[in-house]
């Protein structure tokens, strides 16, 4: 089924992971690659209302900071819940020891679903969760994928990146959204 989900995806050697799917790669500025894009911090509906449905510009997330960000197909989905988020959650102290200011999880979901999912995983204290409700962030980076075959619609590839002051230092993109080989915490820790 995974091959049906990423029709036409090419296989690349490890040095090219990320380049086959994304328009960005190591050395690129993530903020410049997604101009005028903002994400929505995970929150309850009441918090959304009281914040006037505020969004967070990318420059606020990355400027002057060391950030690990990982994207996944969706909240409450199998690999995302059972492997991807837990890999970052259990390694948060190792990221902090390497000087990482924040670890961010982003998916093409609304911020309210992301909030409920983060609470269910008991991961909100360790990881910052953001929604990309319209997929604009992932489309800008060419990390979007159509998962209609799995009844998910437009979503994100499974990926991870280490970003310093907006510059991508490492980018890893899975060959299929059901795979979990290159986007986990252990891989990105070795790249910092």
TrEMBL record:
It catalyses: [glutaredoxin]-dithiol + a hydroperoxide = [glutaredoxin]-disulfide + an alcohol + H2O. The active site is at 80 (cysteine sulfenic acid (-soh) intermediate). PROSITE patterns: THIOREDOXIN_2 (PS51352). GO terms for molecular function: thioredoxin peroxidase activity. Keywords: Antioxidant, Mitochondrion, Oxidoreductase, Peroxidase, Redox-active center, Transit peptide. InterPro entries: PRX5-like, Redoxin, Thioredoxin-like_sf, Thioredoxin_domain. CDD domains: PRX5_like. Coiled coil: none annotated. One of its GO terms (biological process) is cellular response to oxidative stress. Residues 28-192 form the Thioredoxin domain. Its EC number is 1.11.1.25. It is found in: Mitochondrion matrix. It comes from the Eukaryota. GO terms for cellular component: mitochondrial matrix. Its main location: mitochondrion. The keyword Oxidoreductase applies. Thiol-specific peroxidase that catalyzes the reduction of hydrogen peroxide and organic hydroperoxides to water and alcohols, respectively. Plays a role in cell protection against oxidative stress by detoxifying peroxides. Reduces preferentially hydrogen peroxide rather than alkyl peroxides. May be involved in mitochondrial redox homeostasis. Monomer. Belongs to the peroxiredoxin family. Prx5 subfamily. This is Glutaredoxin-dependent peroxiredoxin.
